Amino acid sequence: MIDLTNKIALVSGASRGIGRATALQLARAGADVVINYVQSRDSADRVAEEIAAMGRRVAIVRADVSEQSDVQSMMEFVGNEFGRLDILVSNAASGGFRPLLAATPKNFEAAMNTNVRALLFLVQAAHPLLGQSVDRAKIVAISSHGSHMALPWYGLIGTSKAALESLIRHMALEFGDQGMNFNVVQAGLVPTDSTKMIPGSEVMFNARSSKTMMGDRQLEPEDVANAVLYLCSPLSDLVQGQVLIIDGGAAIHV
């Protein structure tokens, strides 16, 4: 059993979907959790209530992780309230679904700022707190198949996810010998409020059972959260700069 008792974790975009499932799973393993959100305060409150009911310490911080000043303020709060940070999960994502010919500079910047630049800001601001971790600090970024597969109207997001995975590898190279692990969980098609907006999503979701090797079982946010939990635990101390794919085998064949 993975035991994260006394660990301090921060999950960005933790009010819904994969972020919510991850925050709850880390708490079940014993971690105290900082919930980051930017719009869904009611949803963040509900997640916090579930975590508090487990007997864990929990805090809610509203911050736009694409803005450096917001991230810095959030880390100052974490430092004042908890004194250190053991786990950082970069989950918040944005970008919108549109054909590339319709993409504007503002659309491109929004995707890159929230999906890639945010990770840089988070690690830069959290670096002193991560350095206070008693054991190895764990940094996990959430990616998707769009980082290496072409999906309808997913060009900007997919491009940003590819950049995200590259950034994690370079962070592992620069900071890995400082008691920190940097890895990626690349999720297959998971039913969330966001993925349901992908053009043709109903067809893609219906086709999942023929793409995976899991029978009728479908990929859920909790499955992704389980992979994050592993990468946040001592069991993954020797996993560095890697991409862990969670998709039931969907990506290994056409």
Automatic annotation (TrEMBL):
<dbReference type="Pfam" id="PF13561">
    <property type="entry name" value="adh_short_C2"/>
</dbReference>
<dbReference type="InterPro" id="IPR002347">
    <property type="entry name" value="SDR_fam"/>
</dbReference>
<dbReference type="InterPro" id="IPR036291">
    <property type="entry name" value="NAD(P)-bd_dom_sf"/>
</dbReference>
<keyword id="KW-0560">Oxidoreductase</keyword>
<protein>
    <submittedName>
        <fullName>Enoyl-[acyl-carrier-protein] reductase [NADPH] FabL</fullName>
        <ecNumber>1.3.1.104</ecNumber>
    </submittedName>
</protein>
<comment type="similarity">
    <text>Belongs to the short-chain dehydrogenases/reductases (SDR) family.</text>
</comment>
<dbReference type="GO" id="GO:0141148">
    <property type="term" value="F:enoyl-[acyl-carrier-protein] reductase (NADPH) activity"/>
</dbReference>
